[in-house]
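Morning - zinc ion inputs below, output right after.
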Amino acid sequence: MKAVIFVVDGLGDRPDKNGNTPLKEAKTPVMDRMAKEGICGLMNSVDIGVRPGSDTAHLALLGYDPYTTYTGRGPFEACGVGVTVKPGDIAFRCNFSSVDENFIVTDRRAGRIENTSELEKELDGLKIDDVEIIFKESGGYRAALVLRGPGLSDKITDADPKKEGKKVKEIHPLDDSKEAKKTAEIVNKLLKIAYEKLDKHPVNEERRKQNLPVANMIVPRGVGQVPEIMQFTEKTGLEGACIAGTGLIKGIAKMVGLDVIDVEGCDGTPDSDFMAKACAIVETLENYDFILVNVKGADEAGHDGNYELKKQVIEKVDEMLDHITKNISKDEVYFVLSGDHSTPIEEMDHSADPLPVVLWGKSVRVDDVEKFDEFSTYKGGLNWIKGVHIMPILMDLMGLAKKYGA
Ligand code: ZN
Ligand code: ZN
């Protein structure tokens, strides 16, 4: 048996004044059929009443306790952009920013500079004391920063003043340990070096000539220490892959050892193409036992407060599911359909509202739920579960769960 966990990012919502949600109103014949043929319930990816980030939610869905494995966004971002991180590394996400000579931020994204590969070379490979600096731009003004060396800690503040017109913050240790003190000192030194190297760099001289904001500073945030994490295959015995559009989710997948499949598409369409992803899922299932899928779009629409768009994205996802369910066998694949968190239109951010979830496949106890939405699946046989329950339930159905006791 094989398994798919299919995550519609930001799927859930709260009722509008007419009692509707994008999912409830969207035409989703395939989701509804899956609800009818499967076992349904509600799910909180992290915990009841907890507003999850996409990262912590996906860790939980993969069967990892986010409270012990999640140390911050940095490690997963760095992993997602292709840095081979090691346990103990300290990782950040970074912006290239524009600052004046007093380190006052004049543009947080350095005019959304597009090519920073020359600037990356100035910082990547530096050594400060006994610490190695790994620096990788991840498309334009974004980058990942990793510190590797003995005696480092992630118990430090970050540099992001969050507003233009404010000074890049000095890094401070958050506890009395010598590790935190050392790490803060290294990052402070790095920021000074970065300014010296980047401010006079030819790329920035050229931007000055063109009256464009210079990328003369890096602003690290989202610090975390790369955790010791048991690899997915070791934990489950399953060969796993991930199909996702965002670097953060790809980073989580890589961190646990899933192969990240970059989707070119059946007909050469780009990564964002829904149907290309659907084709890729079917193809990937031929070579893997397990796939984690993340589909973007609904979450962004939720953050923008765009009800109609969220509804349209969900309808597109239904078309994906049509292609997938027609090309896989219920006798061979268990399919979990849910989200990672709700992103209600009224909140324009993630909320703790539980998500509808359906588990579709052979030998599940089919319940009498006939519609897949926030108001229908609670009557289902899965009841109310957490994200970390999904993998054990799948493992049991697949005949892979170890017996607890005699
Ligand atoms: Zn999300
Ligand atoms: Zn979001």
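Note: Residues 2-70+228-397 form a domain with the Alkaline Phosphatase, subunit A fold (CATH 3.40.720.10).

O.
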